[in-house]
Amino acid sequence: MTVVSGIQPTGKPHLGNYLGAIRNYVKLQDEAHANGGKCFIFLADLHAISMPHVPAELHASTLEMVATLVACGLDPDKSVLFNQAQVPAHAELQWLLMGTARMGWLNRMTQWKDKAGKNREGQSVALFGYPVLQAADVLLYQATHVPVGEDQKQHLELARDIAQKFNNDFASEEAPVFTLPEPYIPEEAARIMSLRDGSRKMSKSEPSDMSRINLTDTAEDMAGKIRKAKTDPEPLPSDLAGLEGRPEAANLVGIYAALAGTSQQAVLDQFGGLGFGTFKPAMADLVVSVLGPIRDRFVELKDDREALDAILARGAAQAREASRRTLDSAYAALGLVRG
Ligand code: TRP
Asked: Can you state the angle between helices 305-333 and 89-98, rounded to 10 degrees?
């Protein structure tokens, strides 16, 4: 089992990032570690330059995201934790795969279509080639499990197509260069919505800070945001069908279940028939008890530049070593002379 995943170094990590992605990394890390497998988790800082960005902010949010990952339980002794920019093999393999990826495949990517909108001509070439870099990210380490959200499934299928075509075109069946990666989408991959609007994803780009619980919020902030979270006047239903058409109620129940490590039905068994005046304080206690310790570790680590640099340097050295054989095979398969 080789787990590989990347996370965008967006600033201001929130509950949605934790429940949607980071918590699954920690689970898979522990599973891989217990079974003699490997786990590579990296900050996708090279991907970040595919959109307009502010260099100083990218730098700061990369470090902030490392602190977040470690605070949430990613352990540099169990996982290889690094940023792409310190492992040139990612950019190198991307270029080598550019000869295999087809324009038509990339043109069909829904993320490209969404991000480019009507202005394709004005986008960076990096935005178009984004999925090829993502393919390089996972193929470099012969990934078997790639934990991603539903929205990244198409990119993973593309990575498989690229790997397959490269193997067909440039390698023998007995000695393929790349392993075909599998997306790993945990069933209970929680989709956490805004606290102000149950139809929108919780996001750092939402203008109102009341819409999200940041991992840096104080206990009082967290409790206040939950108290003011949008709901409807009905009490909680006693079964899942009763949550239909009630996106805000469903979101709070979903968050509660994810944090308590239980099912939504179990939450309704406990709170069905009760109003939000009872549910919200219980939810605030739960949120604070899970996120409080994470916040404390984050605050301790976030300004410790020396510690963060050391974590990344060590991870990058391990990643460079782990990626070397595959990169060498790809160069050789293509007939490139390297002395
Ligand atoms: N594109 C992913 C996202 O937006 C991040 C990412 C980059 C990634 N490289 C990856 C995820 C490799 C999985 C594997 O969330």
From this structure: 30
Spans of all domains in the chain: 2-185+304-333, 209-300
**Cα gap 211→207, rounded to integer Å:** 8
What's the CA-to-centroid distance between 133 and ligand 1, angstroms? 9
Question: How far does the chain reach from its first CA to its final CA, in angstroms?
Answer: 33
Q: Per the structure block, which two tokens stand in for 51?
A: 């959109």
Question: Would you state the CATH architecture of domain 2-185+304-333?
Answer: 3-Layer(aba) Sandwich (3.40)
Ligand 1 atom at shortest distance from the alpha carbon of 130: 1
Q: What is the mean pLDDT of residues 231-236?
A: 96
**Local structure of 115: helix, strand or coil:** helix
Residue type, 280: K
Strand order in the sheet with 38-43: 80-83, 38-43, 2-7, 145-147, 182-184
Q: Quick: pLDDT tens for 181-199.
A: 988 887 665 689 999 999 9
Q: Are 286 and 222 in contact (CB under 8 A)?
A: no
Cα of 7 from ligand 1 centre, angstroms? 6
**CATH-assigned architecture of domain 209-300:** Orthogonal Bundle (1.10)
Name the burial class of residue 222, with classes exposed (0-12), middle (13-18) and buried (19+) by CB atoms within 10 angstroms of its CB. Answer: buried
Ligand 1 neighbours by CB, cut-off 6 Å: 4-6, 8, 44, 47, 134, 137-138, 146, 148, 152
The continuous run of DSSP H or E covering 39 comes out as strand 38-43
Task: Give the separation between CA 252 and CA 242, rounded to whole angstroms.
Answer: 14
Residue whose CA is at the smallest distance from ligand 1 atom 7? 6
Instruction: Give the separation between CA 141 and CA 134, rounded to whole angstroms.
Output: 12
- Residue-wise pLDDT for 238-285, tens only, equals 999 999 999 999 999 999 999 999 999 999 999 999 999 999 999 999
